[in-house]
Amino acid sequence: MFSFAIDRGGTFTDVWCKIPSGKVIVRKLLSEDPENYDDAPREAIRRILSEFSGTDVPKGSPIPTEQIQWIRMGTTVATNALLERKGERFALLVTKGFRDLLYIGNQSRPDIFDLSISMPEMLYERVIEVDERVLLAQPSSCRLDPQPGPLATGVTGESVHVSQPLNMESLRTELTSLLADGIRCVAVLFLHSYLYPEHELAAGRLAEELGFSQVSLSHRVMQMVRAVPRGHTACADAYLTPCIDKYIEGFASGFAGGLKNLKVLFMQSDGGLAPVNQFNGSRAILSGPAGGVVGYALTTHRQAGGAPVIGFDMGGTSTDVSRFDGQLEHVFETTTAGVAIQAPQLDINTVAAGGGSRLFFRSGLFVVGPESAGAHPGPVCYRKGGPLTVTDANLVLGRLLPDQFPKIFGPTADQALDAEGARQAMSALTDEINAFLSAETGQAAMSVEEAALGFVRVANESMCRPIRALTQAKGHNTAKHALACFGGAGGQHACAIARSLGMTRVFVHKYSGILSAFGLALADVVHEAQEPCALEYRQDNLASIEKRFQHLEGECLAKLTQQGFDKSCVRYERYLHLRYDGTDCAVMCRGSTEPNEDYLSVFVHRYRTEFGFTLDDRRVLIDDIRVRGVASSGADAEAAADSLAGGEVAVEVQQPEPVAHSRVYFEGVGWQTVGIYRLDRLSPGQCITGPAVVLEQNSTVLVEPDWTASLTKTADLLISRKSAEAAASVNETAVAESEVKVDSIQLSIFSHRFMSIAEQMGRVLQRTSISTNIKERLDFSCALFGPDGGLVANAPHIPVHLGAMQETVRYQMANCELLPGDVILANHPRAGGSHLPDLTVITPVFLPGSGQSPIFFVANRGHHADIGGRTPGSMPPDSHSILEEGAVFRSFHLVRGGQFREAEVTKELMAPAQLPGCSGTRNLHDNLSDLRAQVAANQKGVALVTALIEEYSLGVVQAYMKFIQANAETAVRDLLRRVGASALARTGASRLSFADSLDDGSDIRLSVDIDAKAGSAVFDFAGTSLESHGNLNAPRAVTMSALIYCLRCMVPYSIPLNQGCLAPIQLRLPEGSLLSPSDIAAVVGGNVLTSQRIVDVILGAFSACAASQGCMNNVTFGDDSVGYYETVAGGSGAGPSWHGRSGVHTHMTNTRITDVEILERRYPVIVDHFSLCPGTGGQGQFNGGDGILRVLRFRKDLTLSVLTERRVHAPYGLKGGQPGSRGSNSLEVAATGRRMNLGAKTSVSVGPGDRFVLRTPGGGGFGPLASKGTSDSGAGAHQPPLVLRGTLVDYEQMQFSA
């Protein structure tokens, strides 16, 4: 019998087949070749059957199935349809009042420096608001009278109120209208349906009765809390499942009798196989890459002796990185192409570096990607007019051999790779590089090979960063992993990447070119069952938990036995989704199938490993119960036998002879003549000493000097080196800083290394902190500073933190004695602080023998939920003095001589209680825990920079700190030259000016005098109003952050964020003004409101875009037992070529909003409405984005505080565009029916049934209305050039949106 495992990728279809004789056949076809075949997988099956079955199967004739045992497939059909937005038309049915819930999402923007806010479009074509509503019962806190509807019982046993029964007649009318318009698919999202699905079930039955072909109910697709990701997942299911069904129907049509007599299984995103009738859109996103993970997990892990393995799958446009350590690592929510998918999926992280990544030289920096040449036109060497790429660089260096490639390139697909064309393009870029080096740095000219190798080294470092993050984020040592290399491009980079990461072993599987297909042959058939739970994990609930496990196991068994599996072939994996009470960090914990399994110990161990501590005083809650039923067949074991026989190297035999020789360029030694070997001609035990090139059927492997390649008993390639040390030191002896000359390649690598230090500090802080703000919302920033206190690297997390910590570091240098073992705490505005809850922890670093001054600094700034003051949250809306806003630190020694000063810092945190009407910190335990975490994060930074110094020497590291600052300075000077020249040509002067007003009448005035020749500017805020009696005063650090943010937004490409950005800038702030207030001025509003107005003024002066909503819409409510704080999005400003985005956070904030189901579960509040306010964006050639309408109904007596702006002065339009609408805050009092305007800033008491109505401002329009334009971006008209995915990308977005 024939067994087929087929991975249909975007470019190639890979085929693994075991024929009746037991021999394995490997094939690779183009996925799209319409002139020769309709379907690549079916064509591969036809060709193999014709060749090996003894019976010819003519083209176009039905394929006989009698000799086919099974077909297993992975496919990118769903992924491609999602990325290209080519799914099925469908409508979204959603609870009334929430039509824009998925559009708003979590209200954050993906790229904080993209003024156009390009975001993918929504999947649905229409939205139908359905009159229904279910509310969670809150018997202990709800004081509504009467109660909001009759009680019912949810699936977890919790009570709910059916506030509004489903209006079936109205729904029938709406559904009939959809059918009339040709829409035959629907997704259904009703709030709290994960708990009470009756309304969704009724709507689904009605839709099916009316004839809808695809009905995706959110609670069936994924029965988990959080409406937004569950709704997106239901939409993906409705959008993609019909595409999959059409593909399967077309695939089946080519077989005699269709698929009814065939065992056909598809790979799901979780690494398990599913039958055709259970394969759906929401579980298919990672169908292709999942096979590769299963492939190396079941082969390399065993060959590596059980050591953890990093999967490295480098393709043409991107690289997939994953990890395996004995069991597949699943995540349950991640984002692909702007769609949050809530389903079990392997943790596969896609990074923007591949063979097709484009090469650039920008302002002295070597840059690789993220733009890609794609399959068409492809790299220069493909002969289709494509751009210069990593593949071209490898070709120039001799690492790719044109003679070993088929002649399939060029317009007629019959030419060889164009080595000469690649060299000419690289030569042209080298000339550009040398012209810059000659004019700007005096650096010696580079050869073409040196430039090509420089780009390869930069590409390698860009791929090392996510691998470090993937391992160290969860407390693992990167160097202790083996690297499993597969994919077409990975073999040329594997040794260099392993060396940089400290790894000593690289495995290249014999099927590395088709490993995803081979993984399909090894995979198990899986069925998952999951249900929500609301129990506490404790002894008296274990019987109930066991009962639910058995029920879910029965469900899995029923599904698997329907597929023909015997009960004895089925095993179960049990999971509990556990979290500490009051946190959002749930951990999926796997246990055995024993009834008395101790999941608590598993949870505590996992939590301590990942986060560095446990919360022994907190209850442990169960969010979900999950069972994974796994069925293995004899065919699977047989297919795997030849690969799992063992990975040890056989007894050494005669050394192999190369099939040819070629010249390859290596760092430090130049061109070397190396042997070329073919993997299929090597025998087990034979060794190859590098440098060498090994040719596999579908890839090229470079064995670098100091590495040795050997063939294992299973015919896989093991490449190893004896030394476990990292890359050799660039400077073995100390070099004085003044003697170091800038090297553009090293500059690019140091840019990655410095940023990696800041990122890894952030990982430690997130792991070891305890508060929701830092651990879960990631409201922090980490940074590295030079010996002069100048910023070197600041991971771009929180816009209002950008560049601000530099002021704090330099203040301490000038005003505080710094000794070894000291750590300083500061938050005062005069000491570089933004507002008091942002606590900055600074560690000076001393090196023995380097004198008495610090050689560099590391620091981090984290937002603490409370540090005392007048109101909970330390953000009083009506404060008049900084002393009312919480504890104040200028230069406090948090650690002295290595000792954490807990008693002293506790005293300072409680000090605000001495003031009338104020309290000390209301959460001392979290403050102290987070401060310790901040100290630990700095220690990680110290260790990483110290290691960098050991690798390169102090002089080199400090020199490159300055070089990287100079590079950012060059980019900003180029911007100012362009703007200055444009202003001179347009007006005859290079002065820009702008002014705007806050709602209290305070003016912010700016004039910018640009020296177009020097590329410098003076930003003068003369004329700005005096210090405010309220709290809208903005410390100098806030203005600095706003300035560096605006400059970065206006530079059209990515640049390092450091002190160099401000080097060409002279900032003048009038003393005693709103922007340079006195020591005791209240500042909380300055950080969250005035900062936005400063940005509007700067961008207005440069005519970059119209004003965005100019506000963060701060809303707080609570009492002595509960407190909640949120910021709410609005409209963004339009620009010269784009419409403003609606319902999104802009500029100096990017905070995520709490999901409505979580909010209503944890707090005594009901969200009655959350949608866009149509027409609130300013009109123009390009329209401003619309604001939001948000209505909160309170369930008990609480205190409500609002701190907002743009309630008096509307967001301005530019170039003839109209202003956006102003926002408003109003209160509807239930007891009296009274409705009142609350004004912009106030604190009021509210009672049960009272409703707070928030309307946020819209963005300004751009250009005259008569010249209506088509947006280049706005609400997602274009998709990004490369869609990244995985937990690393999600983590980065969380930091962008903290």
From TrEMBL:
GO MF terms, alphabetically ordered: 5-oxoprolinase (ATP-hydrolyzing) activity
Chain ranges of the Hydantoinase A/oxoprolinase domain: 230-528
All residue ranges annotated as the Hydantoinase B/oxoprolinase domain in the record: 743-1264
Pfam families linked: Hydant_A_C, Hydant_A_N, Hydantoinase_A, Hydantoinase_B
Acetophenone carboxylase-like C-terminal domain: residues covered: 660-711
Entry's Gene Ontology cellular component terms: cytosol
Hydantoinase/oxoprolinase N-terminal domain span: 4-210
Family matches, as InterPro entries: ACX-like_C, Hydant_A_N, Hydantoinase_A, Hydantoinase_B, Oxoprolinase-like
Stated family: Belongs to the oxoprolinase family.
Protein name as it appears in the record: 5-oxoprolinase
